[in-house]
Amino acid sequence: EAGVVQSPRYKIIEKKQPVAFWCNPISGHNTLYWYLQNLGQGPELLIRYENEEAVDDSQLPKDRFSAERLKGVDSTLKIQPAELGDSAVYLCASSLDRAAQYFGPGTRLTVL
Amino acid sequence: GESVGLHLPTLSVQEGDNSIINCAYSNSASDYFIWYKQESGKGPQFIIDIRSNMDKRQGQRVTVLLNKTVKHLSLQIAATQPGDSAVYFCAEKFGNEKLTFGTGTRLTIIP
């Protein structure tokens, strides 16, 4: 069974540019999560989807971050415009209802 | 060897020995706990989970112990191998609220 797929794995952009990350969850998992992970720290939730609905986006900086999961399967996370402090690893995870979350490999973003 | 989680984030263990990684969680109402292993350049990998109605759960070479009285969670790894070297995170959750991760402990296996 394929795990959570994310792309790209690495992205380097200049500040003020837009960037987008893509995630395809494990087949059948209805809940999808986007996390941000800074170096040496644990992941922090940005947004959680149950099917197409964003049920928890309280930690998403909505002035520059947006996310969508239009058909309740794959999802994109966008930053526009990116700032230097956005450099981090962006992780996607999925789960079946409230069960264990399984993570993808992440996208390492570097903003110059 | 043992660690105290947030206050001693690095643990070195001789290959073949058992290791114990500790975690002090914050919310006494948390009812679900997970241990993750994260290798360099990879996403967190699910190891084992436990619900609050249990105090012990065993997997392959791993055991998780939960002490709700003192809000303490531990991960025991038996007969450690070089591939066990990684950062280990505990995470807690209450009901349908978000999963909250600890800072992590770096485990290094000495050949």
Could you describe the 3D structure shown?
The complex is a heterodimer of chains A (112) and B (111). Chain A is mainly β and 112 residues long. Chain A has strands spanning 5-7, 10-13, 19-24, 31-37, 44-50, 53-56, 65-68, 75-79, 88-95, 102-103, 107-111. In chain A, the strands form two sheets. In chain A, strands 2, 4, 5, 6, 9, 10 and 11 form a seven-stranded mixed β-sheet that branches. Chain A has a four-stranded antiparallel β-sheet with strand order 1-3-8-7, with no helix packed on it. The radius of gyration of chain A is 13 Å and the shape is globular. The N and C termini of chain A lie far apart (37 Å). By secondary structure, chain B is mainly beta. In chain B, 0% of the residues lie in helices and 50% in strands. Chain B has strands at 10-14, 19-24, 32-38, 45-51, 56-58, 62-67, 72-77, 86-93, 100-101, 105-110. In chain B, strands 1, 3, 4, 8, 9 and 10 form a six-stranded mixed β-sheet that branches. In chain B, strands 2-7-6-5 form a four-stranded antiparallel β-sheet, with no helix packed on it. In chain B, β5 (56-58) and β6 form a beta hairpin. Chain B is globular and about 40 Å long. At the A-B interface, β5 and β10 of A face β3, β4 and β8 of B.
